[in-house]
Amino acid sequence: MGYIEPAPLADKENPFEAMMSRFKVASEKLGLEEEVYNVLKNPAKQVIVSLPITMDSGHIQVFEGYRVIHSTILGPSKGGIRYDEHVNIDEVKALAAWMTWKCAVVDIPYGGAKGGITCNPRTMSAGEIERLTRAYTSAMIDIFGPDKDIPAPDMGTGPREMAWLMDEYSKTQGMTVNAVVTGKPIVMGGSLGRTEATGRGVMVTALAAMEKLKINPYKATCAVQGFGNVGSWAARLLHERGLIIQAISDVSGAYYNEKGIDIEKAVAYRDMNKGSLAGFTEASMISNDDLLTLPVDVLVPAAMEDQITATNAPHIRAKLIVEGANGPTSSKADAIINEKGIMVVPDILANAGGVTVSYFEWVQNRLGYKWTADRVNRRSDRIMKDAFNNVYKTSQDYKVPMRIAAYMVAIDKVAKTYKYRGGY
Ligand SMILES: NC(=O)C1=CN([C@@H]2O[C@H](COP(=O)(O)OP(=O)(O)OC[C@H]3O[C@@H](n4cnc5c(N)ncnc54)[C@H](OP(=O)(O)O)[C@@H]3O)[C@@H](O)[C@H]2O)C=CC1
Ligand SMILES: O=C(O)CCC(=O)C(=O)O
Question: Which residues does the entry assign to the active site, renumbered to this chain (predicted)?
Fold first, then answer.
């Protein structure tokens, strides 16, 4: 096929190129037609907005915000909003495409999108973050909508920001529109189970993979990179299922205890310490890079992109990697990891529990009804297990790594739907 080659990869990998290189391999394995490949490789829409905000000091600071809609072939686009100082359009483009593949892997009726604002929420007051969130929502008023594009939390955002977004959007519509965003506080239409959903999906797929690898959870050790929403819930739930969590980390560094870290204590410490593990004394400090190469059974990267690279991949000793974060493994590292025989449950499968429960939240909002936590968890666990089995079977049938199998499952579904719809 005459595909256009992605640009050569730099040492630090551009996330969009990382996504494209896997997309290309999976498309070739599937024998995807070039026309369809060309449709799916580009985002459908990219919006960049300039957001002037009055800071607490009285001066005006201008922020840049993004929303990229990769695809609406399977349904309204869905994806989180990231607040981080490193957010840029290429990152948002990659994250939007990953959302398309993720929704298709777990078979929910959404396309993919992602948003972000280049800002450092750690240095901003709640008032400044609120004004920024409202300005971003207002700038995206023609993009968002419960049948068009439905945002959710990602790194640096949570229920608080989703509440402001829902309120700002609702004001412009003259009525409460809670289905315009998911990951809201429970009292205003959020779903039970959404906060822990991504970490729970990591736990469910990790256990499914451990079963295939014949690793006994009650004797298994684990290291988790990132101790925010995804990492802390994954650590907590894996610990509940018997795993010994030997290491956790955040920006302040990594914390190691061979006998296992008391995750409840670590969560309580973080919550009392302005969200940081800095100064946590129940473990010894190691570096984030040391954490990735610990001799554990299961490694859960749950922080950000490009953490497992060609440089550290040769030193990874885990038997199983379960990707809580989006894009934590560079495409160059893939080959090394595969060569070493390490199983990877890829991001678009492992962390899909979040968007699955976001879908349930949207369904509940539209029905004006509330499900119990038990119902949410049972249904999302079923979806995650089925998706794991489907991807695992594809990887066995085509003799490809789990990551390529997941892309194949997703691309096949989106491409078939595109054809049935008759193109545009
Ligand atoms: N929230 C969700 O539902 C979903 C999130 N994801 C993905 O999971 C990942 C984490 O998201 P989420 O948990 O929501 O984000 P949070 O902002 O809640 O947490 C991010 C965590 O990663 C830590 N971190 C950031 N950079 C580094 C680093 N270089 N080394 C070690 N730790 C670091 C942060 O530390 P500190 O607190 O010190 O800054 C924090 O503990 C992202 O890739 C996101 O896209 C995927 C699916 C759904
Ligand atoms: O919950 C959602 O809708 C999207 C979550 C998200 O951004 C992700 O899965 O990466």
Answer: 114
List pocket residues of ligand 1, CB cut-off 6 Å: 153-156, 198, 225-231, 249-252, 275-276, 288, 302-304, 324-326, 351, 354
* Ligand 2 binding pocket includes 149 (Cβ within 6 Å): no
Q: CA-to-CA distance for 333 and 310, rounded, in angstroms? A: 4
CA–CA gap between residue 29 and residue 403 (Å, rounded) = 13
- Can you list the alpha helix ranges (DSSP code H) found in 174-248? 194-213, 229-240
Query: Taking the domains of the chain in order of start, what are their residue ranges?
Result: 45-176, 195-350
338 CB neighbour count, 10 Å cutoff: 17
Find the ligand nearest to 184 CA: 2
Helix ranges, 273-401 (H):
288-292, 331-339, 347-350, 353-367, 373-398
Predicted confidence (pLDDT) per residue in 84-127, tens digit:
999 999 999 999 999 999 999 999 999 999 999 999 999 999 99
Nearest residue to 289 via CA among 267, 266, 313, 305: 313
Is 78 a known ligand-binding residue? yes
Check whether 2 has a pLDDT greater than 90: no
Minimum-distance ligand 2 atom for the alpha carbon of 82 = 7
Which of the residue ranges 34-38, 174-178, 256-260, 339-343 would you say has the lowest mean pLDDT? 34-38
Sheet of strand 284-286, all strands in order from the earlier edge strand to the far edge: 284-286, 253-256, 244-250, 221-225, 298-301, 320-322, 343-345
Overall CATH class of domain 195-350 = alpha beta
Please state, in angstroms and rounded to a whole number, the distance separating the CA atoms of residues 388 and 382.
Answer: 10
Q: How many angstroms separate the first and last alpha carbons of the chain?
A: 22
Give the residue, out of 106, 150, 154, 252, with the most ligand 1 atoms within 8 A of its beta carbon, to mutate for a pocket test.
154
Using alpha carbons only, what angle is made at residue 271 by residues 242 and 57, rounded to the nearest 5 degrees? 150
- Going from the Cα of 56 to the center of ligand 2, the distance in angstroms, rounded, reads 31
Nearest alpha-carbon partner for 198 in 137, 153, 247, 145: 153
In this structure, whether the domain defined by 45-176 belongs to CATH 3.30.360.10 is answered with no
- What is the CB neighbour count within 10 angstroms for residue 399? 9
Atom of ligand 2 nearest to the CA of 95: 10
E-strand spans in 154-305?
Answer: 221-225, 244-250, 253-256, 284-286, 298-301
Same fold, 45-176 and 195-350: yes
pLDDT digits (tens, 9 = 90+) for 397-409: 999 999 999 999 9
